[in-house]
Amino acid sequence: MTITPVILCGGSGTRMWPLSRGGYPKQFLSLYGDASLLQQTATRLKGLPDINSPLLISNNEQRFLVAEQLRQAGVHNPQIVLEPIGRNTAPAVAAAAVIALESNPDALLLVLPSDHVITQSNVFKQLVLRAANVATTGKLVTFGIQPTEPHTGYGYVQRGDALHETDAAYTVAAFVEKPDAKRAAEFIESGDFYWNSGMFMFRADVYLQELAQFQPKMLEQVKAAVAASQRDLDFVRLGHDEFAACPSDSIDYAVMEHTAHAAVIAAAGLGWNDIGSWTALAEVSQADAEGNNLVGDVMVEGVSNSYIRSENRMIAALGVDNLVIVETADAILVAHKDKVQDVKNIVNRLQAAGRSESVTHRKVYRPWGSYEGIDSGARFQVKRIIVNPGASLSLQMHYHRAEHWIVVTGTARVVNGDQTLLLTENQSTYIPIGATHRLENPGKFPLELIEVQSGGYLGEDDIVRFEDTYGRAGERK
């Protein structure tokens, strides 16, 4: 019995805006502890017996974030599968199941969201082994979280008859959508209901058999997408047209609510939280004597029961209660704790207005490092660029802008037209409009430089790549 972890990391995390954004969602953030939620999910698996390297389902825009965070966390030989378009969890897991069966006909899948907090890793490992015992018998197992309150923000699973007394496993009597407060209280009172965690364990072949019964079109398109997949560096790209034609649905709706083989494992003492809102994060964070969670450079007077987080600037708060205040370089959220679920409405309005704050931070990560906007105005833009040791940007040119590069620290190897220059601290060069150029860090320490762009158009899509280490030649951003 060998377990293949399947980590789903393509979500957008809009409810944690302004820290979580479309281009850098919450699974990549260090919201709880020093490691990101994705890194915690992957490293939580270490120490489990008979476990394969994880298989991750992501998307094209976030592929390098996934790879780099796993590298930093010491996760070796992951399979990273890229969806060309989001189709919810059922097709994503189906693709993972098809791929896993190619190398192991007895593949057992452990399906995990990448953005949950689990504080008790040892309890998690015990639950995984219990779930594996049940799943090998042909059951599709969901992890049911023992509820601590009548929460209205979670779906519920009602347990039926006991399957394995020693494993605290039961048949599933019903899946229930998010209830109102009265029904949630009734669920807690009955003792027969669990929170639906979104974590699953099942044999890959059994999942595909059930999908064939309830969603045959979905399975057909997923198989076609896997058959048409292509390897790109360390990534597997599913066939675009085949996957785009796939129906979109969740595991719950597509399979679990219909199958006769659903089971639930009672997960008590897990320290689980899906970090679905700023209030949820406050609940698992350490509070001071006044009930405040203060992160970063924060000064308060007469403040109680509030979550206040500073990423860049000092926040001062006076005489407020039950607020969430989150500051980033380009946006600040102020919300009552009772209204944090509505943050997604702000994100929708930003998207409708074409505002970049819904998608990107001022600091943008790339496979070679990062860049951060410092200042901008009519016909100019200033950025701070960090290039990792040994990394190189693409060989490229711009139609509408010129660039000035000033090295702050480190060493830069610069291709500028037909010249190759080696620049060190306080040295600079000028890249004219239309000149072919490349920036590289040949050293062992990060290269930091200031870039001043000037021209009639400064968008990131004004780029033509001729050569690229990361397989992006032809991409326009």
Q: Low-confidence parts, pLDDT < 50 over ≥5 residues?
A: none
Q: Average pLDDT across residues?
A: 94
CATH architecture of the largest domain: Alpha-Beta Complex
Rg to the nearest angstrom?
24 Å
How many strand units?
30
What is the beta-strand fraction? 25-35%
CATH homology superfamily of the largest domain: Spore Coat Polysaccharide Biosynthesis Protein SpsA, Chain A
What is the CA–CA distance across the termini?
A: 44 Å
**Shape, please?**
globular
| Structural class by SSE content | alpha/beta
Strand order across the largest sheet: 20-21-22-29-24-27
**Residues in helices, as a percent range:** 10-25%
Describe this structure in words.
The protein is of the alpha/beta class. It folds into three domains: 3-273, Spore Coat Polysaccharide Biosynthesis Protein SpsA, Chain A (Alpha-Beta Complex); 280-346, no CATH class; 363-467, Jelly Rolls (Sandwich). It is 23% helix and 34% strand. The chain is built from eleven helices and 30 strands. The strands form seven sheets. The chain has a six-stranded antiparallel sheet with strand order 20-21-22-29-24-27, with no helix packed on it. Strands 6-9-7-8-12 form a five-stranded mixed beta barrel. Helix 3 crosses helix 6. The protein is globular.
